[in-house]
Q: What sequence folds into this?
């Protein structure tokens, strides 16, 4: 997947990649990536956990703005199947300051 | 179903359960060094960007040709997923990870509904007209085909469709 990201970026479109396999991401080196220590098949979390999925997607989009160094991999701190900052309706707007590259 | 597909699925369950196995396997693989990543900055604020999704989770529309599960080196082709495809028309063909949860809610590998909500909230500009899906298990002779044919083709389509940024999701 890192290779697809590189090709899209090479053609002039900014990309951000989610990763659940850090070693593979380190080797293929996509322009921007966010690593989650979550099981395969669950890059956005658990089924039907809308707030959690939206939170992670917004983290990824924010990285398009905050990451400045090509090849950066951000480690997201969310443990699997534990409550996260998205609980209680998590307001997305303005949360960008919390995630700095 | 053929025996080798059951074997692949069994391995997928094992690898999902014990991620350390994959790490050990990866360490033994000698992957080509692709060099420093290419880079373009985001051209405008997110609230003005058209965003597309590209996944390697093997998602495709029912009725589209499924990804090839018989070829041991995988399948470097891609499928187009128009933004308004009803979610119950999507299915996953990919024996190399456990997709039972994604079968229930495709958003955990291809967050189409979440992206639409961000557009409704005006946090992003627009959802792109088309999204793209690969099958992530690509090896051997199919890697050059991915690099020289199918990935460049998807990138060209995204450009034509006015996409400003892409979120890629693995499986």
A:
């Amino acid at each position: 997947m890192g290779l697809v990201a590189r090709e899209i970026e090479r053609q002039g479109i900014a990309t951000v990649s989610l990763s659940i396999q850090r070693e593979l991401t380190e080797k293929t080196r996509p322009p921007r990536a966010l690593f989650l220590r979550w099981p395969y098949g669950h890059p956005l979390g658990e089924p039907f956990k809308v707030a959690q999925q939206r939170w992670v997607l917004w983290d990824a989009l924010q990285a398009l703005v905050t990451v400045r160094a090509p090849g950066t991999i951000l480690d997201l701190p969310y443990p699997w199947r534990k409550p996260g900052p998205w609980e209680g309706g998590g307001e997305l707007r303005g949360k960008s300051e919390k995630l700095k590259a | 179903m053929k025996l080798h597909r059951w074997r692949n699925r069994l391995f997928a369950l094992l690898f999902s359960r014990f991620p350390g196995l994959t790490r050990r396997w990866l360490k033994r693989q000698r992957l080509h060094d692709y060099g420093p990543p290419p880079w373009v900055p985001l051209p405008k604020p997110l609230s003005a960007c058209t965003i597309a999704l590209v996944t390697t989770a093997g998602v495709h529309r029912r009725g589209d040709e499924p990804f090839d599960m018989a070829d041991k080196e995988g399948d470097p082709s891609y499928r187009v997923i128009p933004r308004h495809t009803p979610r119950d028309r999507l299915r996953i063909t990919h024996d190399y990870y456990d997709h039972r949860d994604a079968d229930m809610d495709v958003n955990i590998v291809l967050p189409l509904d979440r992206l639409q909500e961000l557009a409704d909230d005006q946090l992003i500009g627009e959802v792109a007209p088309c999204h793209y899906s690969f099958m992530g298990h690509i090896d051997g002779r199919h890697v050059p085909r991915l690099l020289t044919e199918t990935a460049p083709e998807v990138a060209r389509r995204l450009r034509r469709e006015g996409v400003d940024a892409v979120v890629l999701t693995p499986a």
In short: Residues 2-98 of chain A form one domain.
